[in-house]
UniProtKB/TrEMBL annotation:
SUPFAM superfamilies: HAD-like. NCBIfam families: HAD-SF-IA-v3. It comes from the Eukaryota. One of its GO terms (molecular function) is phosphatase activity. This is HAD-like domain-containing protein.
């Protein structure tokens, strides 16, 4: 197997993947929840939710705070996110890509903005063999920082010992990809599995 970086002589050795909306998707049924999908997505963009993802709020505190902000009962917020958790599923095409990368000798990490309770649920949404594809999973709740906080990227770099210039970071949010580039990593903004797999060929070559 040969690999090469798109820019410069540094060979790509490592990949860091976002989890939500890249390796896992979620789509709760609107008919089962009192909270509309648009409101649910807006909740995910609040500072209160960010603090929850940074491990600064408990689950009950987070539901109470965002419920107050949006005029929704905390119990309805809780039910909406339980339904969202239930709808989580992994993307088979992306998992197959990870298997190929792993078999070709690349190091693979995950880096996710996720609360500790949500992480405990997400861990059940893939098999032990699938989680074993990752050298390590980094979550914002444990790091006490979230993307695009520079501290989170530096934490991952320090803990994994990865070489930033030889690492490709993959995330669906442009601000997270830009922050990765500022930390010295290469970056791919994820749109869909087919597009990512096509883009991947610009960074590496996998012998078959």
């Amino acid at each position: 197997m040969q690999s090469h970086s798109q820019k410069g002589p540094t060979k790509v050795t490592t990949f860091v993947f976002d989890l939500g909306d890249v390796l896992f998707t979620w789509a709760p049924s609107p008919s089962l929840s009192d909270v509309p999908p648009k409101t649910l997505h807006n909740i995910l963009r609040t500072n209160s939710w960010f603090d929850y993802e940074r491990g600064r709020l408990s689950e009950a505190e987070a539901y109470g705070k965002v419920g107050s902000e949006f005029g929704i009962d905390a119990s309805s917020v809780k039910k909406a996110f339980e339904l969202a958790r239930d709808s989580l599923k992994s993307d088979p095409a992306m998992l197959d890509t990870l298997r190929t990368l792993k078999a070709s000798g690349y190091r693979i990490y995950a880096m996710s903005n996720i609360s500790a309770p949500d992480w405990e649920v997400l861990r059940t949404k893939a098999s032990r063999e699938e989680w074993a594809l990752f050298d390590r999973v980094f979550i914002s709740a444990a790091a006490r920082a979230r993307k695009p906080d520079a501290e989170f990227y530096q934490h991952v770099i320090a803990e994994s010992g990865l070489e930033p210039a030889a690492t490709v970071f993959v995330d669906d949010k442009s601000e997270n990809v830009e922050a990765a580039k500022e930390a010295g990593l290469q970056g791919i903004q994820y749109k869909d599995a087919a597009g990512f797999i096509e883009t991947l060929s610009n960074y590496i070559t996998i012998s078959k």
